[in-house]
Amino acid sequence: MRIDELGETIRTLRTRLGYTQQDLASALQVSPQAVSKWERRHP
């Protein structure tokens, strides 16, 4: 899986489950900015 595909997968699953970036960040104990970066990362 390419890194850009991973970001898209994270975003797709997060939104499908009804989570915000803040929700996911809290669950993973990272910053919301980290989640945003993962989701928009391009090679």
Structural class: mainly alpha
Number of strands: 0
What is the distance, rounded to the nearest whole angstrom, between the alpha carbons of the first and last residues? 12 Å
Percentage of residues in strands: under 5%
Mean pLDDT: 92
- Low-pLDDT stretches: none
Main beta sheet strand tally, sense and closure: none
Element pattern in H and E = HHH
Approximate shape? globular
Helix share, percent:
over 70%
Annotation field: number of helices: 3
Overall number of domains: 1
Please state the CA-atom Rg, rounded to the nearest Å: 10 Å
Protein described:
- With 43 residues, the chain is an all-alpha fold.
- Helix content is 72%, strand content 0%.
- The longest helix is centred in the N-terminal third of the chain and has 14 residues.
